[in-house]
TrEMBL record:
<dbReference type="GO" id="GO:0000132">
    <property type="term" value="P:establishment of mitotic spindle orientation"/>
</dbReference>
<protein>
    <submittedName>
        <fullName>ANKF1 protein</fullName>
    </submittedName>
</protein>
<feature type="region of interest" description="Disordered">
    <location>
        <begin position="1"/>
        <end position="25"/>
    </location>
</feature>
<dbReference type="InterPro" id="IPR036770">
    <property type="entry name" value="Ankyrin_rpt-contain_sf"/>
</dbReference>
<dbReference type="InterPro" id="IPR003961">
    <property type="entry name" value="FN3_dom"/>
</dbReference>
<dbReference type="InterPro" id="IPR039269">
    <property type="entry name" value="ANKFN1"/>
</dbReference>
<feature type="domain" description="Fibronectin type-III">
    <location>
        <begin position="202"/>
        <end position="299"/>
    </location>
</feature>
<dbReference type="Pfam" id="PF00041">
    <property type="entry name" value="fn3"/>
</dbReference>
<dbReference type="InterPro" id="IPR036116">
    <property type="entry name" value="FN3_sf"/>
</dbReference>
<dbReference type="GO" id="GO:0005819">
    <property type="term" value="C:spindle"/>
</dbReference>
<dbReference type="GO" id="GO:0061172">
    <property type="term" value="P:regulation of establishment of bipolar cell polarity"/>
</dbReference>
<dbReference type="InterPro" id="IPR013783">
    <property type="entry name" value="Ig-like_fold"/>
</dbReference>
């Protein structure tokens, strides 16, 4: 079988272009190939060629050139060039796992020359070993054949060069001789690397944690030894027996970008033992048992059988809204809603009518009253009217003070931009009560409809957490929306923010700027807030700091400026799950009246959460600028773990009971000095939902 394989390889090699005549020539060839395939790739990507045959021919040529360039880089041990190619081109574009005419892959060359940095870079990009090497014997035979054939070719060319008279053909033979001498040395180095290699040591460390009530997470690290060949894959095994007999399952991990694995489908409450072993070209090394030696899949909710807090809430709210709509759908005031055309053409026509309707245009200046403005942005550009004004519409020209409850009501309405017409009609029905609050809120809905009609956009985005007020009696409610795609609009256009700021002529004094001037001056800060408030946390368990302060009409919560939709926090670990055993320990600590006892080193090693919490608390106190000795009376909230989906969970750290919420005028000893802000609690809750 190997003889037939080598014949096939020889035939393929005969079709392969002649190799480089020397290492320097190889470098030149490799650089030229890299440059050529960059140019070809661009032209192919731009679709400049017509004809399927030409494109397929170019694609094959492009793949060959990229593959040859990568092989040259690996053989010449040019780590920088290998990393550059892996960064700019996909494995498919590099033809990363297609053997060459010698039956080798780039990873084979790297590991058999014991070039660990290049091998690791290839492994992280998804490189694999050649499928030809099904055993140690087949690899050894293959390498011996390559060395023997290269040596034979060197001897043949040397004899020809010695016996032939100097001419052009002789000069070409000398170039081929140098190339084959260089390849002969490469194959000998690969063969020696294989013969001197040994199986890898066990992974240096294996950490086991409980990922859920049916899964365990295994994290492991490379063997410490640097004398063995590069590790190319790992094997995770699990069993209910410490002797691993019988074996319940195993998994081979050959994608080594991150050295961890989650074992799914386990039985809750059952102890599982885990071990991990490493593999290189010489075979599997000895296994390393995990720390701790076993783990039991579980979740903190199993401690008292508690159901998730939000289970079914979204469905219940949708059902309730549907019921409310059903009650109102037969009202005569809803007939226009039923007959409203849904096509884009009618919607555009309606928005165009608004442009010529008296009182339905964007405002240029503010008079004493309540206003709504919508900021749409994309990169460094912002939507403005044709008069280079930020879109503003009037809510109420007689409303000189904004009640916090009305503002918070509007922030909730922002979750239902598509239902504004229906909400208007419902509020219209209720106006018979002549409630001032209902009249104000109805005017808010009218202003929203007007803004949507003028812009031709339903979703106006997120309401900024506080309105802008000036001394002239103007109040400006701001909505923010990032536009991801290139859209064009009827009545507005894109302009750079810096151009808008520099070209606008202020009509107010610097000491008493109008609300519009204040908006324009602070627009970058508001856009930054909007972008940061949409960032999501990476998966993990976090320790959050809950600090509130109250005013006459609201309660505000302390949040970091860089992530205002989340409490002040630090990450405890990457695994978001709290196991039943960990929760039992937390409950035990919470029931102790005195400060937490100092645990022995043995107890700490058996309880990683204790160590993780100690580190997290110190880090969190430093973050919020509270001396550690002042935090001795702080408490962990032990009623529940706050789960935000399946990937993020929080434990809460609370100040003493009397200091959780600071009253107006009260000295607050537990508030950081900078880098934080306070949001109205309802705004924070909405941001958290988003």
């Amino acid at each position: 079988k190997m003889t037939q394989q080598m014949r096939d390889l020889q035939l393929a090699q005969a079709r392969k272009p002649p190799g480089p005549s020397s290492p320097n020539a190889a470098k030149r060839l490799y650089r030229n190939l890299s440059g050529k395939f960059r140019v070809n790739y661009t032209s192919f990507d731009e679709g400049s060629l017509v004809g399927r045959g030409e494109k397929e021919k170019l694609r094959k040529s492009y793949l060959f050139q990229s593959n040859a360039a990568l092989f040259e880089a690996v053989e010449l041990q040019d780590l920088d060039r290998v990393q550059e190619m892996l960064k700019h081109y996909s494995p498919e574009e590099l033809d990363l796992n297609t053997p060459n005419s010698e039956g080798l892959l780039p990873l084979d060359v790297a590991i058999m020359t014991n070039n660990a940095p290049i091998a690791r870079a290839l492994l992280q990009a998804g490189a694999k070993e050649s499928p030809h090497f099904v055993s140690l014997e087949s690899r050894s035979l293959h390498l011996s054949t390559l060395v023997r054939e290269a040596e034979q070719r060197v001897n043949e060319l040397m004899a020809q060069v010695v016996n032939e008279a100097p001419n052009a053909d002789c000069s070409e033979k000398e170039k081929q001789l140098k190339a084959w001498e260089w390849r002969f040395r490469l194959y000998k180095r690969m063969k020696a690397g294989f013969e001197h290699a040994r199986v890898p040591d066990a992974p240096s460390s294996v950490h086991l944690s409980v990922a859920s009530s049916s899964s365990l997470q295994v994290t492991f690290w490379e063997p410490l030894s640097v004398n063995s060949a590069v590790v190319t894959k790992y094997k995770v095994e699990w069993s209910c027996s410490p002797t691993f007999s019988p074996l319940l399952g195993e998994a081979v991990i050959d994608k080594l970008k991150e050295l961890h694995f989650t074992i799914q489908g386990l039985v809750s409450g059952t102890a599982y033992h885990i071990r991990v072993s490493a593999y290189n070209m010489k075979g599997w090394g000895p296994p390393q048992a995990s720390v701790p030696p076993f783990a039991i899949p579980s979740n903190w909710r199993e401690y008292d059988g508690r159901a998730p807090r939000r289970r079914g809430q979204a469905e219940a709210l949708d059902h309730l809204l549907a019921q409310v709509k059903t009650v109102h759908q037969h009202c005569i005031c809803h007939e226009p809603c039923k007959n409203q055309p849904q096509s884009r053409k009618h919607s555009v026509s309606k928005s165009l009518k608004h442009l010529f309707h008296p009182g339905s245009k964007f405002l240029k200046t503010l008079k004493r009253g309540l206003y709504l403005t919508a900021i749409f942005y994309k990169d460094d550009n912002i939507l403005v009217t044709h008069e280079d004004q930020i879109p503003v519409v009037e809510i109420d020209d007689t409303y000189s003070c904004l009640l916090m409850q009305d503002f918070l009501w509007l922030t909730k309405v922002s979750c239902m931009w598509d239902e504004i017409l229906w909400l208007r009609q419902c509020v219209t029905v209720s106006q018979s009560s002549c409630s001032c609050i209902l009249q104000t809120r109805f005017k808010m809905l009218l202003a929203i409809s007007q803004m949507q009609g003028l812009l031709g956009i339903q979703d106006l985005g997120q309401v900024f957490f506080e309105p802008i007020k000036d001394k002239q009696g103007n109040i400006l409610i701001v909505t923010l929306k990032e536009v991801k795609t290139n859209q064009t609009f009827e009545s507005v256009r894109w302009v750079p923010i810096c151009k808008l700021q520099s070209s606008r002529k202020s009509v107010s004094s610097p000491e008493e700027p109008t609300a519009l001037d204040t908006l324009l001056i602070s627009v970058q800060d508001k856009l930054a807030y909007h972008q940061r408030s949409s960032h999501a946390l990476s998966a993990g368990l976090y320790l959050g700091y809950l600090k509130l302060c109250s005013a006459v009409d609201q309660i505000r919560v302390l949040v970091p400026e860089q992530l205002p939709n989340i409490l002040c926090h630090v990450k405890i670990r990457s695994n978001p799950n709290i196991s039943r055993e960990e929760w039992e320990w937390l409950q035990k600590m919470a029931s102790v009246e005195e400060p937490l006892p100092t645990e022995s080193e043995a107890d700490r090693s058996q309880n990683p959460l204790f160590q993780e919490l100690q580190v997290a608390i110190k880090e969190l106190m430093t973050l919020v600028n509270i001396p550690l000795q002042e935090a001795k009376d702080f408490r962990l909230y032990s009623q529940e773990v706050l789960d935000f989906g399946d990937q993020v969970s929080f434990l809460l750290l609370l100040p003493p009971s009397d200091d959780v919420c600071t009253a107006p005028g009260q000295n607050n000893p537990y508030t950081p000095r900078s880098g934080f802000l306070t949001l109205p609690l309802q705004i924070f809750e909405l941001g958290e939902e988003r």
